[in-house]
Design goal:
alpha/beta; three-stranded mixed β-sheet; 8 helices; 6 strands; elongated
Length: 165
């Protein structure tokens, strides 16, 4: 009599504690978050913190940071700052005024707005196919449309390795 071992499900493989980024975070905050938690990506929640709106990874951050940056703009201070008793600046001084640019880029600007997910009872083979077809490193596990876990490529490799031992 052959014993059939049930294939692990997404629920068996998932990490239930999901760390999420927020769409309105700056890229600096995102980088700190990923590094602090030693993760390479995370789901992205809306500004309200309740709606899953996408996924972001270290690759997205690196891709954005590697894009050519524009030269800092040189601004002439407005006349409001120049006028007054005995305030006269040479053209060389005016050309040296640079006002620091604060990046207005947020997680929403670099995230992938597509969410790859599987239901909690999906078998390992379905989870793997979803990841391969989507060319992704993590998939989100849902129950009734709500995020309950995450499965990484490493989680799948771990399950395969444990199955062989």
């Amino acid at each position: 009599m052959e014993v059939v071992v049930a294939e692990p499900t997404a629920r068996d493989l998932m990490t239930p504690k999901v760390l999420a980024a927020h769409a309105d975070w700056s890229l600096e905050r995102l980088a700190e978050f990923l590094i602090e938690h030693n993760i390479s990506g995370a789901p992205v929640l809306s500004e309200s913190g309740f709606l899953l709106v996408g996924a972001v990874s270290m690759s997205d951050l690196v891709r954005h940071e590697s894009l050519p940056q524009r030269e800092p703009r040189h601004h002439r201070p407005t006349s409001f700052y120049l006028e007054g008793p005995d305030l006269h600046y040479a053209e060389e001084d005016l050309a040296s005024f640079q006002f620091g640019q604060v990046s207005m880029v947020t997680v929403r600007d670099i995230m992938t707005p597509v969410i790859f997910s599987v239901k909690e009872h999906a078998p390992l083979s379905e989870v793997a196919k979803t990841m391969v077809n989507g060319r992704i490193h993590r998939v989100f596990v849902t129950r009734d449309g709500h995020l309950i876990g995450v499965i990484s490529a490493l989680d799948i490799l771990r399950a395969i390795a444990e199955e062989k031992t």
